[in-house]
Amino acid sequence: MSAPLLRVAVPNKGSLSQSASEILRESGYRQRHDSKELTLIDAENGVEFFYLRPRDIALYVGEGTLDVGVTGRDLLRDSGAKADEVLELGFGRSRFHFAGPTGKFSDLGQLAGTRIATSYVGVVRAFLEERGIDATVTRLDGAVETSIQLGVADVIADVVETGSTLRQAGLETFGEVILESEAVLITRAGSVPSGFEVFKRRLEGVLVARSYVMMDYDIRSQDVTAAVALTPGIESPTVSPLHREGWVAVRAMVPRDGAQRLMDELFDLGARGILLTDIHACRL
Ligand SMILES: Nc1ncnc2c1ncn2[C@@H]1O[C@H](COP(=O)(O)OP(=O)(O)OP(=O)(O)O)[C@@H](O)[C@H]1O
Ligand SMILES: O=P(O)(O)OC[C@H]1O[C@H](OP(=O)(O)OP(=O)(O)O)[C@H](O)[C@@H]1O
Ligand SMILES: [Mg+2]
To answer: I need a surface site. Which of 22, 50, 83, 140 has the fewest CB within 10 A?
Structure first.
């Protein structure tokens, strides 16, 4: 009998949906082509995907109905589900803030007695409770920025990415950031579903491939120690002999950020034939 399929929840709409499917596709999994498909079986890789609202994903995974999910850290916290964050996925980054009319509020002490509109009631109530602040929290589904203008709330608490929605509504954030969020991989608290390790390793491989590039260069043997100090690689750089006497070839993974500056420094050290190539996937 074949092993049961790993049941994975993927956002079906919203900010996380496209990036989630992209990273899964890059990890070698089948993904739906039609946004109306609700489930998809990738039998070859032993996985079944369920396309669900990211807000609901934490609940399904927390209850153990599904094994693994992609959702936002803020949505996971808001749900109160008993699920663990097991991998940060590097997309869907946002900050959760309180905001009010420009110039009206300056610190979170002023929240007492206000009416707060939010789609994240769980996060907001927990925050107020922790600080012993008494305020009225109203749950709205979206477009919370408009609620102040409509007289329904004095303050909002919402996700801010670029800040342009707030500006358009004549609002500004105040107080410290409540929560820094990004897309995360979650499993039921304390459980490691069968087949999960391979699934996670594939995604980690893509994350590393996204943040690292492969660098190759030739350098005089006498300068190789200085050069590999700049490019130590993840485990150790490969140094191979060159046909040209007194020269070696070096190959190492380097962080994508700053790779151009590194090429300049290597060139100054005497390195030549410096090449930078993308990595598509890896297992480290
Ligand atoms: N600009 C953004 N707007 C909303 N959510 C964002 C943004 N950037 C990142 N996110 C993250 O995406 C998740 C929100 O998922 P959700 O499905 O509600 O997306 P959405 O874009 O608000 O979709 P919709 O409004 O259609 O429901 C949260 O984890 C949030 O932190
Ligand atoms: O800082 P910004 O880059 O402007 O992004 C933040 C805005 O984007 C989201 O709204 P969304 O488009 O999801 O609409 P919604 O309010 O209906 O959920 C979020 O709720 C903010 O309103
Ligand atoms: Mg939204």
So the answer is: 22
Name the closest-CA residue to atom 11, ligand 1.
92
CA-nearest residue, atom 1 of ligand 1? 161
- What are φ and ψ of residue 135, in 5° steps? -150, 165
Nearest CA to ligand 1 atom 26: 14
pLDDT given at position 152:
96
Which option is the CATH number for 6-91+182-194: 3.40.50.920, 3.40.190.10, 3.40.50.150, 3.40.50.2300?
Answer: 3.40.190.10
Instruction: State the pTM of this model.
Output: 0.91
- The fold for domain 94-180 equals D-Maltodextrin-Binding Protein; domain 2 (3.40.190)
Q: Among the atoms of ligand 1, which is closest to the Cα of residue 17?
A: 17
Note every long-range contact of 117-121, with CB atoms under 8 Å and residues 24 or more positions apart, other chains counting.
117/144, 117/147, 117/148, 117/152, 117/153, 117/155, 117/156, 117/157, 118/144, 118/156, 118/157, 118/158, 119/144, 119/158, 120/74, 120/78, 120/96, 120/157, 120/158, 120/159, 121/78
Per-residue pLDDT band at 119 (split at 50, 70, 90) = very high
Q: Establish whether this prediction's ipTM goes over 0.85.
A: yes
Distance 256 CA to ligand 2 centre (A): 30
Q: Do domains 6-91+182-194 and 213-278 have the same CATH topology?
A: no
Mutate which of 121, 160, 168, 177 for ligand 2 pocket (most atoms within 8 A of beta carbon): 160
Q: Which atom of ligand 2 is nearest to the CA of 165?
A: 4
Q: What is the mean pLDDT of residues 187-208?
A: 94
Mean pLDDT of 238-249: 96
* Ligand 2 and 142: CB distance under 6 A: yes
